[in-house]
Amino acid sequence: MKTVLAFIILVPSICLGQNISSIYWSYGCDGYIYHFSPEEDKYQIYTKLQVKDKKSGDYYNTYQMTEGQLVKSGKDTYSLINKDMPGKATIDFPDMELAVLNSDQYGQARLLPCDKEKAEILIKEANEHFKVCDKNTLNCRSL
């Protein structure tokens, strides 16, 4: 009876667990945010860089976003398709605590879940930046 009761209590928490699109991924959550949405067959990579203005010597933040198509290519593996990304790139989700990015261009990178609130702040900043600057242009000063 105790086993059945434990099963009934644990099953909803297991079923209500996180899915890939509810997690923001990164190396260190400090300037690169990866967001994968298998339900929409797309991915986005947000980049935040601090740049020094050559004339004034002041620093400012600039942003870039790369986006493309996410195609299921294995049990927990997806291919990242983007016309601007040379070679092959895949993302593998062995569990919800780790994602492994494999890229012909950059090699292998282990991505970890980021604090959702921090990631959403970076994405909000980037989207404000994109109202003035193109998504694929670094060194554009929006402020």
Describe this structure as you would to a colleague:
- This protein is an alpha+beta fold and 143 residues long.
- The protein is built from 2 helices and 8 strands; from the N terminus they run H-E-E-E-E-E-E-E-E-H.
- It has helices spanning 2-15, 116-129, and strands at residues 24-26, 32-37, 42-52, 59-72, 77-81, 89-95, 98-103, 107-113.
- Strands 1-2-3-4-5-6-7-8 form an 8-stranded antiparallel beta barrel.
- Strand 2 (32-37) and strand 3 form a beta hairpin.
- The longest helix has 14 residues, at 2-15.
- It is globular.
- The chain starts with a helix and ends in a 14-residue tail after the last helix.
- The relative contact order is 0.18.
Write the layout of secondary structure elements.
Blueprint: H1 2-15, E1 24-26, E2 32-37, E3 42-52, E4 59-72, E5 77-81, E6 89-95, E7 98-103, E8 107-113, H2 116-129
Antiparallel strand pairs: 1-2, 1-8, 2-3, 3-4, 4-5, 5-6, 6-7, 7-8
